[in-house]
Amino acid sequence: MKTTIKEIGKHVEQSVTIGGWLANKRSSGKIAFLQLRDGTGFIQGVVVKAEVGEETFKLAKELTQESSVYVTGIVRADDRAPSGFELTVTGIELIHEAVDYPITPKEHGTEFLMDHRHLWLRSKRQHAIMRIRNEIIRATYEFFNEQGFVKVDPPILTGSSAEGTTNLFHTKYFDEDAYLSQSGQLYMEAAAMALGKVFSFGPTFRAEKSKTRRHLIEFWMIEPEMAFMDHEESLQVQENYVSSIIQSVLKNCEQELKALERDTAKLEAIKAPFPRISYDDAISFLQEKGYEIEWGEDFGAPHETAIAEAHDKPVFITNYPKDIKAFYMKPHPERDDVVLCADLIAPEGYGEIIGGSQRIDDAELLKERYDEHNLSEDAYGWYLDLRRYGSVPHSGFGLGLERTVAWISGTEHVRETIPFPRLLNRLYP
């Protein structure tokens, strides 16, 4: 019976065949131990010379790392094994012999591993991170579908910037200028006016010359927009969403978290509601801690980490100064110097994972913002139309997938949280 390592527990004491690769091996006299992987998981195959014969045992001992094989054997329950099972091998069929596989069990430098990213993905650690990433994506669709959201796909090629910044990748769109999208938000607002509650999930691009462990040039964003929803209601959606994906990872990725040696107790504590601190209070807190920062300045990584360390859950920093936030954010009803927005800061030094706000719904005020930010009405006229024709209170946010994967999986650098990272000095492979 053909099966996968993930499903092997359904066939205890039965003979099964799995197709896979040899991750590693060791032998002791007349027994060989094969570490096998098939994409769904890892399992040990035990080959006993007296039980399989000379030819099969010789093949087992000569197998090279990453050679592909069909392995047949009896499934045994084994509490000592990470997966709870191992395979008593009865037969091996070599599919393809790998020669001089470059990533050996010894230590390799980061640049070497990045040059061989297409192979590094096969390792146990990278396998675990990618499966956690997949679970977060699966749980995201489940959460928003259950909440009545509609999935909408905004364009990747745009004629303007969502946030009016210059960190854009420019290209030619036939005889026009175009840019790779840095956010689908503006288009999602249009979709929300048509469909009520919407979300997108796709790649975004920032031409930001940053080398920190939190930054990628190409990354994926989940961006919900919600009509008839104010800022506080949006915060509740955000904390419920983050709580939901963490519970899904804890439930469905137990083996992967164990392989990464993640402290799951810290994740188990992450349940809504999350604490909130105003920008004003955050500045006072940092100044009391000895940080040199003035009101009106944005927070850097050390500031966010200090604020996060004061809480045991993700923390919302609310109501930032208008001058350091995007043009579309709605002013606070009682203050014209701050806006109705929040950044969600993850614990353990992982920084901002969500940025969100209530959007301006008044056409005249938005037009004023265009003028303040030197935005062309030729490029942004369609966005102003959303306020001219049936404007409503609406809010939205964006969650950066890779930072979220890094936090939940306990991975230090975001380059390991995406299959093929695009970094400041890396476009290969």
Automatic annotation (TrEMBL):
Enzyme class (EC, first level): ligase
UniProt entry keywords in alphabetical sequence: Aminoacyl-tRNA synthetase, ATP-binding, Coiled coil, Cytoplasm, Ligase, Nucleotide-binding, Protein biosynthesis
Gene Ontology annotations of biological process type: asparaginyl-tRNA aminoacylation
Cell location: Cytoplasm
Keyword Metal-binding tagged: no
Coiled-coil intervals: 243-270
Name of the molecule in the record: Asparagine--tRNA ligase
Organism name: Paenalkalicoccus suaedae
Gene field: asnS
